[in-house]
Amino acid sequence: MDGRAAVIGAGITGLFTSLYLSLAGMDVTVYDRSDICSGTSGRFHGMLHSGARYAVNDPVSARECITENMRLRREAWRFIDDTGGYFVALDGEDEEYGDSLRKACAEAGIEAQEMDPEELLRREAYLSREVRRALLVPDAVIHGFEFCAAVAMEARMAGVQFSLFNGVRRVASRDGSLEVESEKGRDRYSVVVNTTGPYSMPILKASGIEDFPLAPTAGSMVVYGGRYVNSVINRMREPSDGDIVLPYGEVSVVGTIATVIEDPDNFKVHEEDVAMMLDEAKRMVPVIGAMQYKRIYSSVRPLIRSSDDPRKATRSFAIIDHGTSGLPGFLSVLGGKFTTGRLVGYEAARHASEYSGFHVKDVEFDFNTTYERFLSFRGGDRAVDSLLLHFGSTDQERLMPALAFLLSRRLMD
After folding, report:
1. In what residue span(s) does the FAD dependent oxidoreductase domain sit (predicted)?
2. For the segment 76-93, what is each residue's pLDDT rounded down to a tens digit?
3. What is the Cα–Cα distance from 1 to 347, expressed in whole angstroms?
4. Is residue 252's pLDDT more than 70?
5. What tens digit of pLDDT does each residue of 256-266 get?
6. Which CATH number fits domain 4-41+145-213+315-408: 3.50.50.60, 3.40.50.150, 3.40.50.720, 1.10.8.640?
7. Domain 82-139+215-304, architecture per CATH
8. Closest C-alpha to 24, from 375, 331, 363
9. pTM, whole model, 2 decimals?
10. In 167-207, where do the E strands start and end?
């Protein structure tokens, strides 16, 4: 049993956790009640954070973000649109905050350059003419599902087994090991890592764990049909609602609202909250006020409970050891962001491996060639082969999500 590990959750954190554990020599199985990247990881706004957003009030998270941002630019540039990001001031209070922001960015190792507002307006035609100050930071856009699929493929090539569409019900201690009860059966492991984030409580309660510092926080985004900005646009102020507009492919995404909720599977987005968010966003990009949005989508983030204001909760992470609840070897991950998913997964794997004598190493990856190597590893099928005939055409970039999806269907082969 010493070499067997279970990871619950196939989002970005769970995928990296499983990859690192498998590379360390463990026999790993990933469980998920749905598909890869089907929860929080598949419903964020698409931003690869520079950390500037958190530099003033959450410097630990800011440093984590910039470190991972730079690393992913090397290891996964294929999935990143290097748009750059701007913090823009619309009034005197914003301008004053810019001084604190620039100082905090310097302390966190984040490059933040003053940009002439007139020059910025030439680059961003739809930006408000009220912009009084602007800072350029290394924000970017990352294509979440395509990247998650690449991490999952690397994990599969490293030996990870996937048990998707098979939710875990509970974890119990059995004769010195941990028994995972899923919808399809039971199996035993020496370590179990729960990375289901905001969806953790039913599993934990069924496992006898009541006290867990989780603040499930809903964030809603609005999608507009049209690319109204070319860069990630942030309001130059403390993180708040409606202060991000970014380009994602051919659409624009406006975010976000943060509301602590009780049940991540059953919550409502209120029209007045969306209206408030859009009122704030259109101060930065006025054309939004004249356009009809296409859709609203929401995610639930696994913030660490610390106060009543979710905006003040750290975006860093914590690893909770349930040994004190009589389940040694059972760990849960809290917090983190898509940007820091690799770091969180590495640390979760490192902690888990301590229970079984394996050594997790921090290795460099090349996700830019993952799809090609996975095709060699697993082989194509008729759908994949047909799709690949269109690569090299005008629509190659538009076909990447389809390729990611088709290849991810081979994870359980």
Report:
1. 5-346
2. 999 999 999 999 999 999
3. 22
4. yes
5. 888 888 899 99
6. 3.50.50.60
7. 2-Layer Sandwich (3.30)
8. 363
9. 0.95
10. 168-174, 177-182, 185-189, 191-194
